[in-house]
C-alpha cells in the first residue's frame, strides 16, 4: 500500500503540472492572437490614414499645378521686379558702404590727430613741468640756504652773547676770588706779625726772668 501511494502521488503531480502548462500555453496563444489582431487593426488604420493623406496630397498637388500654370507670367513679372529691386538695393548698399568707409576713415584720421595732439600736449606739459620743477627746486634751495644762513647767524650771535655773558661772569668770579686771596694773604701776614710779636714778647719775658734769677743769685 505504501508503495502504491508513492507511485500515485507523482503521477497526480505530473498530471497537474501538464494541465497547468497546457492552460498557460493556451493563454499565451490567445494573448498573442489578441496582440496580433490589435497590431493588424492598427496597421490597417495607419495604412488607411496614409492613403487618405496621399489622396489629399494628390489633390493639393493638382491644385498647385493648376495655380502654377496660371501664375507663370505673374511670377515671372514679380521675379523681374524683385531682381530690379535687388539690383537697386545692391547699388544703394554699395554707395552706403563707400560712404561708411569714407566716414570711418575720416573718423579714424580725426581720432589719430586728436591722439597726436594729446601726446604733444602731454610731452609739452612734461617739459614745462620739468623746467618749472627745476626752477622751483633752485629757488627752494636758495631759500633754504638763506634760511639756514640766517639761522646759523642767529645761532652764532646767540652763542657769542652766551659766551660773552659766561666770560663776564667768570671774570667777575675770578676778580672776586683774587680779592678774597689778597684778603687772605693780608690776614695771614697780620697773623704772622702777631705771632712774631707774641713770640718776641715771650722771649723777652723769658730773658728778663732769667736775668732776674741770675742777678738774684
Automatic annotation (TrEMBL):
Localized where?
Cytoplasm, Cytoskeleton, Microtubule organizing center, Centrosome, Centriole
The record's keywords, sorted A to Z, are:
Cell cycle, Coiled coil, Cytoplasm, Cytoskeleton, Repeat
Biological process, per Gene Ontology: eye photoreceptor cell development
Described function? Essential for the assembly of the distal half of centrioles, required for centriole elongation. Acts as a negative regulator of centriole elongation.
The record's similarity note reads: Belongs to the POC5 family.
User: Looking at the keywords, is Coiled coil present?
Assistant: yes
Query: Under which name does UniProt file this protein?
Result: Centrosomal protein POC5
* InterPro entries reported in the protein's UniProt record: POC5
- GO (cellular component) term, any one: centriole
Amino acid at each position: 500500500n505504501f508503495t502504491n501511494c508513492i507511485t500515485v502521488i507523482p503521477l497526480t503531480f505530473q498530471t497537474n503540472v501538464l494541465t497547468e502548462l497546457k492552460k498557460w500555453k493556451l493563454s499565451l496563444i490567445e494573448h498573442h492572437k489578441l496582440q496580433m489582431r490589435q497590431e493588424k487593426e492598427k496597421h490597417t488604420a495607419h495604412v488607411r490614414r496614409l492613403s487618405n493623406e496621399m489622396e489629399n496630397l494628390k489633390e493639393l498637388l493638382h491644385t498647385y499645378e493648376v495655380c502654377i500654370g496660371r501664375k507663370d507670367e505673374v511670377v515671372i513679372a514679380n521675379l523681374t521686379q524683385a531682381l530690379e529691386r535687388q539690383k537697386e538695393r545692391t547699388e544703394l548698399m554699395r554707395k552706403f558702404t563707400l560712404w561708411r568707409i569714407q566716414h570711418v576713415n575720416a573718423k579714424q584720421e580725426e581720432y589719430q590727430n586728436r591722439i597726436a595732439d594729446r601726446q604733444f600736449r602731454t610731452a609739452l606739459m612734461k617739459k614745462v613741468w620739468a623746467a618749472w620743477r627745476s626752477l622751483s627746486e633752485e629757488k627752494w634751495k636758495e631759500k633754504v640756504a638763506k634760511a639756514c644762513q640766517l639761522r646759523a647767524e642767529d645761532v652764532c650771535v646767540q652763542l657769542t652773547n652766551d659766551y660773552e655773558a659766561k666770560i663776564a661772569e667768570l671774570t667777575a668770579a675770578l676778580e672776586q676770588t683774587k680779592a678774597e686771596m689778597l684778603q687772605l694773604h693780608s690776614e695771614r701776614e697780620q697773623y704772622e706779625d702777631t705771632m712774631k710779636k707774641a713770640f718776641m714778647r715771650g722771649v723777652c719775658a723769658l730773658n728778663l726772668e732769667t736775668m732776674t734769677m741770675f742777678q738774684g743769685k
